[in-house]
Amino acid sequence: EVQFVESGGGLVQSGGSLRLSCAASGFTFNDYGMSWYRQAPGKEREWVAGISMSGGITNYADSVKGRFTISRDINGVYLAMNSLKPEDTAVYYCSAQVSGQRRWGQGTQVTVSS
Fold first, then answer.
1. Spatial distance between the Cα atoms of 21 and 25, rounded to a whole number of angstroms
2. Mean pLDDT for each consecutive 10-residue tract of the chain (114 residues)?
3. CA-to-CA distance for 113 and 89, rounded, in angstroms?
4. Helix (H, G, I), strand (E, B) or coil at 103
């Protein structure tokens, strides 16, 4: 069974930092690109960042470029978030397209206070 378990969320002041982690299991992790998405209250889920199978290629939404860094190792995928803003408040999900379906974890809440 494909599973993702996110962790590392929390409450942080504006300008602060957090590092999210995602542990993946149930599929050959190194064969898939990975992504982080987020969903703020009352808004649709949006893509935040993606990383290739090898980790050599990364992409970011314009809203987080220069502040967030996605990375991966054999244990999982990570999202380092710096210079956080109140508008970054959301539930953050890691995700991959596995066997033709986009799979999601349960998410981790990030709250940025002003």
1. 13
2. 96 98 94 97 97 96 98 96 98 95 96 97
3. 8
4. strand
